[in-house]
Amino acid sequence: MKLFIVNSGSSSIKYQVIESGSETVLAAGLVERIGEVCGRLKNTVHPGTKDELEMVVEQPIADHQSGMELVIATLTDKTNGIIGHVSEIGAIGHRVVHGGEDFSGSMRIDESVIKALERNIPLAPLHNPANLDGIRVAMEIFPQTPQVAVFDTAFHQTMPPRAFLYAIPYELYQTDRVRRYGFHGTSHRFVAGECARLLDKPLTECNLITVHLGNGCSMTAIENGRSVDTSLGMTPLEGLVMGTRSGDVDPALHLFLKQNKGMELEAIDALLNKESGLKGLCGMNDMRDIHKAAAEGNARAKLAVEVQTYRTRKYLGAFMAVLGRVDGIVFTAGIGENDPIVRAESLKGLEAFGVRLDPERNWLRSREARCISGPDSMVRIFVIPTNEELAIAREMAQVLGD
Ligand code: ADP
Fold it and tell me: Cys-Cys crosslink for 1: which of 20, 52, 75, 114, Cβ 3.0 to 4.6 Å?
């Protein structure tokens, strides 16, 4: 069966078509700049194989409906399409950012799911409306096809109140559901499953710390296969130092910036989300550029890596204390999978806690999931490539009963 995986953003649609049995990616693409003067679609068929073929279309794309229609036209194209007719798509999976407290797992989409998503818009005012747009358009174009919502927050719904509550008046939780939700759940869950396989143990017996370091960064403490704490909060801003997001700051910073800089709350929010993190510290947010600059003597670039890896180490220590026994630490996403310097710096000084990296394994370049700890490490350390689309495809198969 062919599965269509959709990740709809405010001005973009990212997608893949995956063959469910073999888990082969038949096509992958991105529609960008929806609603702008000129939109763009990039579609790659049979990516990563000898038959790989890329095509780009540039034309105005007024809205998500037009964007989705362009994707369908491309996928069913007579010469280079990978399907003859839309009816060949057996199911559609949507990545949804915020499921609030309504969803602790993936759900087949019906009216009640859509209502719950609408109810959760205040928790993710930028993301959920865009996800809903994608769902509505797909339901119109594919009225007969089962659709599944896979939530970034669902995996973390197992956190106990002591981990998800903020120490603010409890009424704010009761009335407005102000609490930690956590994100990147699909990725944390996927790499945890892969790690359990490598450890040759059932996931329900594994205690893991999964470290997702991409543009967005987060860490999750997993006890017996369940998320018990995570670094991202009510929104995807808390915790680790990210590409352009600050992670933890003193909440009193808002008042300081208002009183001393005359900044409005919206401007402060934009500063913390878009102008902070690695970019705020050194002007760059791509880790490859930062390492290059640091090697050329750029002190701020060096400092940015130091601040980020120190914060990661601090959270690792905290989550080791949360779990007590840790079977594995897993690094994943763009930086986690590819950056031996960041991995080594983040783990520096944890030897006394039984965490010992094997320098040679750490520096080995590979796309495979692998162990990078030394033989004397009590805690095994892994690099495991995340694959959110494949994770969504597997979730869909589970929800729809294979
Ligand atoms: P997103 O959160 O947008 O999915 P990714 O997981 O793709 O992000 O990660 C993007 C980050 O990964 C960028 O900071 C990029 O610099 C970093 N990255 C990608 N490849 C490498 C590499 N070879 N070495 C270091 N960092 C890398």
Answer: 20
